[in-house]
């Protein structure tokens, strides 16, 4: 425990002798392409959390646990040495009589009510009874005291209720959490998370915020966006992410300013910080941890005006005062009154935004079929490839003037975009239950993406925003006109220390089960929520059979991997297995795992595999930061990862050729872009392809349509007449080539 932490705890039981206030400056960005805001906090580093103005810190009744998560343990007889003491003192027991006695005990309502007071609800009481009955009837030698009690009941000398102490003793053996429920509740009490930290906080954003960081002796900026911003201000800055280490000093010395991902920040190193995304259902816990735990004189948090009230309230609980500053966007951005409607209407500086990788592939091919070059950026591309594509798009001398991208363009890339074009307004999301949903993008998401147009540092001094399809434009305008919902909650996640304390009380529980019980018992106030932990549990279940100590197991399960990639999951499993054998994961071992060296991709499937290999190398580097001795060759792995990045860049530059090769070699019934089998016929009527006209608007009279497949597709709006005619020409050409090939020579 740090000296500062000890002093903080000591201050909570002693009268406060001094009050040291540190003025903090920070700003909040309005992502509506308009205003920025800044907050200043007055910190008292020795004061503990205050009572919330919301009154949510009262000691309310404890939350009832989800007993379905309690897994009964298998136990053995306390006496199993062949000496039946109870039988010698009394007599052997008749099993049929025992069964009658046990069933009568189970039906006693009084016993169930008393057991409920001890934490045994109806579910646990039933499970405990089944186990107790099996124990009594099947065990070879009962303990002497239980044997004597059962004999007395059989002989009429005892009452059936006399079994209760022995039943509860057994119940607490198979459900050890019953004996330590109060301790578990205290450990999982998250109502005052600031008690776990002694950090200092505030909010700030944008270049204006970074300029404040520039004049500080040392600082940490969360996110790669801060890296480019600091370099623009002429400040040497290191980059530290789970997979990347870039040092300004050639000898590896640490710079005074560091840009890092939120998960990589240290809550024990004095720093200044720029952070955001506190309400994210998966990563929000990391931002809350930084906000409450960073040992910093100043912390600057990225955000929009919707977060000001929440940060003010949150800071009140830790003894802060908040001051807000506002900043204006330096270049205008407007919503157009017309949709693009066709890729033929694209102009230099356009960015088509999609929310599906398959849409990225499809649109990029259609653009290049029109004789235009386009750059491609999506989330799973390596950082180097994204930067390479961004550089290609930004270069005024490069013929590439169109960008096709996902919302990844809003994450720290500087792009010279004139017009943002939303190809769709529907994006896959994961809800708080971990379920995948297709929802219209939120106002915050729309503003974040739209704000990429006409950035002050780009060659375009004014930005424009529109949609690809006419029907989407009024929806986009309505989305952008909404007031951004105020942020009211911050994410939390159990720490390794809390799970270790749980494991002390429940040594036989699996990590996944410990997490479930923790969440079930956890208490949070209205300002917090427990983040989605499905990914954590997925990894915990995957490596449960591998012998690892709890701390190492926890760290492995926090690894950022894409569980949808089978190769990544398989590699993760091999990493854990090799680690458990106490065998270092050497460079040669990694090369064998990924089949290095690799060749450029020949189709989309190859490209996706290379991206997965890059993720595996990311995983190695992420683990090497935490287990340096077991992952000793991080520098060599980083070198081949850079080579792999170059190979992927080559594939992305030729992405249209890869798509053609994929479609040519596609197996019937298999989606060539996703390598997954297409689903069978759906009972739901087919959805019309957006932009494809209806039959009556297509220029083809209904009477002229025959019953062919092509005509039916046109009628249903799944195919345009122009595309149908183009397909007919290609089919005719291929048919003529086949006929000429099959003609006998000399004819």
Automatic annotation (TrEMBL):
List the residue ranges of the region (Disordered). 666-708
Q: Where in the cell is it found?
A: Mitochondrion matrix, Mitochondrion nucleoid
**A Gene Ontology biological process term:** mitochondrial RNA 3'-end processing
Per its record, the protein catalyses:
ATP + H2O = ADP + phosphate + H(+)
- Keywords noted in UniProt: ATP-binding, Helicase, Hydrolase, Mitochondrion, Mitochondrion nucleoid, Nucleotide-binding
> What GO annotations for molecular function exist for this entry?
ATP binding; hydrolase activity; RNA helicase activity
**What PROSITE patterns does the entry give?**
HELICASE_CTER
Superkingdom assignment: Eukaryota
Q: Which Pfam families match?
A: DEXQc_Suv3, Helicase_C, SUV3_C, Suv3_C_1, Suv3_N
Keyword Calcium in record: no
Which InterPro entries does this entry report, sorted A to Z?
A: DEXQc_SUV3, Helicase_C-like, P-loop_NTPase, RNA-DNA_Helicase, SUV3_C, Suv3_C_1, Suv3_N
Residue span, Helicase C-terminal domain: 335-500
Listed under GO cellular component are:
mitochondrial degradosome; mitochondrial nucleoid
Family assignment from sequence similarity: Belongs to the helicase family.
Q: What is this protein called?
A: ATP-dependent RNA helicase SUPV3L1, mitochondrial
